[in-house]
């Protein structure tokens, strides 16, 4: 049963900038008290042209059964590749079922989201994200932005496919303490399974693009990825706020599992559609890094999250990222006279730095990043 509960966020009240430093003055917003207040803080109110549509049409997306593909069924491979190719050229996302992920593990992972975000704020702040970093606990990305704040809390942590290290388990123990080893074990296992699933999907993307099954799998074999727990508290003015603003993920591939509360919306053919949660399905979407790898053939998916005034919403997001040493450059087969080179070579850490220190990720991140690289070069 989903029950709303007290939660606290910190919002920047005012940002003061001078030649020496940036100072953020913070105020506490207690969601337990919010129903008694007529308005939500102005920092969380989005401009009229970006305000959410709370009753958008539902996009009917037939889930793609990948069991046959993963097991090597040649007939299933052809059918799945065709469906994925069409989806990724059009809007950059699709749903997968029969993925082989244990539902008990999914239930555990969702339960631990509740356990973490219902803790006292002082406990969660043991993992507080530092300014300029992408991992840790964050309340609406405080310290980075002073307007259009997302109505959410997140916990992000690094995952390495290096089998010699248990990066996720070590993170929880080192940051939160020995009592959180169980958290670390569950999310370590979850990330390992998501990494393997991602590599399988990369085989699918490689075949659908015509560069072979192994090309992108090999590229991401030693991935250094990011896992994020998303928590969207109830908002008594959901028509004014957004859980996450319109954006395309700067990463390569996102594998998302939602709870049973609606909130995910995608932009298709010039309008917003809702994606209804399916307990047995993962939402897969292309990110900017893979759009660059595909030489712009596959589109980074534009999406956002809305909130509601009744219950909290949770989701698990695994962001596949290449190893830091990998140069993001498309296969030669995808560069033609009809489709010339679109984006410059780059490494994932440079794009990550750009989004953490110089640019708020939106629908034009990759274009802005390309210009930034060119300016640096000049």
TrEMBL record:
InterPro entries, per the entry: DIOX_N, IPNS-like_FE2OG_OXY, IPNS-like_sf, Iron_ascorbate_oxido_reductase, Oxoglu/Fe-dep_dioxygenase_dom
Any one GO MF annotation of this record: metal ion binding
Cofactor(s), by name: L-ascorbate
Keyword Iron: yes
Domain Fe2OG dioxygenase span(s) in chain numbering: 222-322
Any one biological process term the GO annotation gives: gibberellin biosynthetic process
Keywords for the protein's UniProt record, in alphabetical order: Iron, Metal-binding, Oxidoreductase
Reaction catalyzed: gibberellin A12 + 2 2-oxoglutarate + 3 O2 + H(+) = gibberellin A9 + 2 succinate + 3 CO2 + 2 H2O
Pathway annotation: Hormone biosynthesis; Plant hormone biosynthesis; gibberellin biosynthesis
Similarity comment: family membership: Belongs to the iron/ascorbate-dependent oxidoreductase family. GA20OX subfamily.
Protein name as it appears in the record: Fe2OG dioxygenase domain-containing protein
Organism from which the protein derives: Clitoria ternatea
Lineage, highest ranks first: Eukaryota, Viridiplantae, Streptophyta, Embryophyta, Tracheophyta
């Amino acid at each position: 049963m989903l029950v709303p509960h007290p939660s606290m966020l910190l919002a920047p009240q005012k940002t003061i900038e001078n030649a020496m430093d940036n100072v953020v003055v913070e105020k506490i917003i207690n969601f337990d008290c919010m129903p008694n207040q007529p308005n939500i803080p102005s920092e969380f109110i989005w401009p009229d042209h970006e305000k959410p549509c709370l009753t958008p049409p539902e996009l009917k997306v037939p889930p793609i059964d990948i069991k046959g593909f993963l097991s090597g069924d040649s007939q299933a491979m052809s059918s799945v590749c065709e469906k994925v190719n069409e989806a990724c050229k059009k809007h950059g996302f699709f749903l997968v079922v029969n993925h082989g992920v244990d539902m008990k593990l999914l239930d555990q992972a969702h339960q631990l989201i509740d356990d973490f975000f219902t803790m006292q704020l002082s406990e969660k702040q043991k993992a507080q994200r530092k300014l300029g970093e992408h991992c840790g606990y964050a309340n609406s990305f405080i310290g980075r932005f002073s307007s259009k704040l997302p109505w959410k809390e997140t916990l992000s942590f690094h995952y390495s496919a290096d089998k010699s290290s248990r990066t996720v388990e070590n993170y929880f123990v080192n940051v939160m303490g020995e009592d959180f080893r169980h958290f670390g074990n569950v999310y370590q296992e979850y990330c390992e399974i998501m990494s393997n699933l991602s590599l399988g999907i990369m085989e699918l993307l490689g075949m659908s693009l015509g560069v072979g099954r192994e090309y992108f799998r090999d590229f991401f074999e030693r991935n250094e990825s990011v896992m994020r727990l998303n928590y969207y508290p109830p908002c008594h003015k959901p028509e004014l706020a957004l859980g996450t603003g319109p954006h395309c993920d700067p990463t390569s591939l996102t594998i998302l599992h939602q709870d049973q509360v609606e909130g995910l919306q995608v932009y298709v053919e010039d309008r917003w559609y809702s994606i209804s949660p399916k307990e047995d399905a993962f939402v897969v979407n292309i990110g900017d890094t893979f759009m660059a790898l595909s030489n712009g053939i596959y589109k980074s998916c534009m999406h956002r999250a809305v909130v509601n005034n009744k219950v909290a919403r949770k989701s698990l997001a695994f962001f596949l990222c290449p190893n830091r040493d990998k140069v993001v450059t498309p296969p030669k087969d995808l560069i033609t006279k009809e489709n010339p080179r679109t984006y410059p070579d780059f490494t994932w850490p440079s794009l990550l730095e750009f989004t953490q220190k110089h640019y708020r990720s939106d629908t034009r991140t990759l274009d802005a990043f390309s210009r930034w690289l060119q300016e640096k070069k000049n």
